[in-house]
Amino acid sequence: MTQAQQVKPFDYIIFGATGDLTMRKLLPAFYYRLSAGQVPHNARIIGTARSPLERSVYQDRARDALKRFVQPHDFHEDLVEQFLNMIHYVSLDGSKAESNWGNLRSLLNESPQEQIRVFYFATAPNLYGAISENLHKEGLVTEESRVVLEKPIGIDLASADQINDEVGRFFKENNVFRIDHYLGKETVQDVIALRFANPALEAVWSAQYIQSVQITAAETVGVEGRAAYYDHSGALRDMVQNHLLQVLCLVAMEQPASLEADAVRDAKVKVLQSLRPMDEARLKNDTVRGQYTAGQSNGIAVPGYLQELGESSNTETYVALRAEIDNPRWNGVPFYIRTAKRLKQKVSEIVIRFKAPETSLFPQQPRSSLLVIRIQPDEGLSWSLETKNPLDDNFALQKATLDVNFSKAFDVRYPDAYERLLLDAVRGYPVLFIRRDEVEAAWRWVAPIMEAWANNEVPMTEYKAGSWGPKQAEEMLAARGDVWHEDME
C-alpha cells in the first residue's frame, strides 16, 4: 500500500490556540501525522492567543488534549514528548496592531527565511482581515506563506465578499486555503474514485438510471451549551451552505480534466451554477425547516431547543431541501439535502436510489437498487441488489446487500479529516479546499432560502427530539414518489 510522504519542514502558527477546535481537532491531528511519519522532526507548531501563558503551561494543556482526544492505544509517552517539544506559545492578540508582535517575529526568525509558514485562523471570521493586515505590516507574510481560513466564511454573500477582499489584500488566492473538513473525510473523497475509476458506475451515473439522491448529516446531540452561539447560525448556514453543497458537487460534477486543484474546483463550480434557483413556489414546496422539541435521545429525556436557548427563536435546527440541477446529466433528478440536531441516529451518508427496472419477467416488480456511501460512522459503502430467493421455484426476488467497511477491508485506521487538510496546506495542494468563486456561488443559491425563512414565508415546523424529523419533510419526498432512506424497505 502506498504510504503518505513526509512534508517539508514548516512553522504552523495557530491564532485561537487555546480554543476548543485547536485542542479537540488540530493538535490531535498533528500528533497522528507525526506518528505516521509525515511531520518532520524540525517542524514547529506555534500557538497564539490573548491568554498570558508560559510555554510549559501551554504544553501541559496540549498533553491534556492528547489524553482526551487521542485513542489510548495511540498515546505513546515518547512520541508525546517529541510532539510537545515541537509546540511553542506566544501571547498575542492577532487582531490588534499594538499587540506584542515582537515575540512571534523573533520566534519565526529562528527558522530559515524559505521555511514554509502556515497561518491558521481558528478565530471569529470577522477578525480574519485584521489578522492578515497585521501579519503583513509586521513583515511576517513571505513567499512561502499560506493562510487557512476556518468556516464559516461570512454569514451571507456580502460578508463573505468582505472577508475574502480583506484577506485577499495580503494573500494571493492560491495561498488562501478555505477549509471545509467534510472534504477531508476519506469517504467523501472516495466519491471521486468510485465514480471515475469504475466505468460501470459512471455509465449509470445520470438521470437515465438514477431516481433520486439523498445527502444526510444527522446528529443525535442538541445545541446544549452552544445554544446562544448556534442561534446566530442555524442548520442552513452551519451545514448546508458549505459541507453538504460540497458533497452534492462531488456527486454531481462532470469528470474533471485532471485531479489538479483548479480542474476539480472548476467542475464543482459548474454544478453550483447549474442549481435551479429557488423561486417563491419552490421555496414553499421544496424547503422544510424545523426546531426540535422535548423528547428522548438515546433513552434519556432531553429538553427542546427553545428550552435550551431560554427564549423564542426563528432559527432552524432541521433543514430538508429538494435541489435540482439544470443540465443534461441530472435533469429531473431530485437531490434531497437534510441535516439536523437531535435526530434518531447519528449518520452522514449519500444514498443513490437507482430506478427500478420496467419488466414483467418476474412474479413481482423488482425494487430500486440503493448505493449507500457512509461518511460517518463506520465509513464504507453498501449496495443492495435484487437476487433470486433460493427457497422459491418461481423466481421470487429478495434483497441482497454487498457491504464494505473501509477500515476493516483495508485494515487501517481512517484518519480524521483535519489530518489530511492540515498537511495539504503545507504542501500547497488546495484541491480539497474551497475556492472563492465556490463560496460565492453557494451563498447565492441559499440566499433566497435564508431571506424567505427570515420573513417566515415558510412556516417553522416542530419535531420531537429522538425522531427522524417533521412529517412535512416526509411529505416533500412523497410528492415525487420518494421516501427517506430510513423508511425504505
Describe the structure.
With 489 residues, the protein is α/β, with parallel strands linked by helices. 36% of the residues lie in helices and 21% in strands. It has 17 helices and 17 strands. It has helices at 20-35, 55-69, 77-85, 102-109, 128-137, 157-168, 186-196, 199-203, 227-230, 234-252, 261-274, 280-285, 305-309, 406-410, 417-427, 436-454, 471-478; strands spanning 10-15, 44-49, 87-91, 116-121, 145-149, 176-178, 210-218, 287-293, 295-297, 300-302, 318-323, 335-340, 347-354, 370-376, 380-388, 397-405, 460-464. A 9-stranded mixed beta sheet has the order 16-15-14-13-7-12-11-8-17, with helices on both faces. Strands 3-2-1-4-5-6 form a 6-stranded parallel beta sheet, with helices on both faces. Strand 9 (295-297) and strand 10 (300-302) form a beta hairpin. Helix 6 packs antiparallel against helix 16, helix 10 (234-252) crosses helix 16 and helix 11 (261-274) runs parallel beside helix 16 (436-454). It is globular. It starts with 9 loop residues before the first strand and ends in an 11-residue tail after the last helix.
What is the topology, as strand order, of the major beta sheet? Answer: 16-15-14-13-7-12-11-8-17
Mean pLDDT comes to: 92
Distance between the termini: 38 Å
C-alpha-based Rg, rounded: 24 Å
**Strand composition percent:** 15-25%
Measured as a percent range, the helix fraction is 25-40%
Biggest beta-sheet profile: 9 strands, mixed
Number of alpha- plus pi-helical segments = 17
Structural class, by secondary structure, is alpha/beta
Count of strand segments: 17
**Poorly predicted runs of 5 or more residues:** none
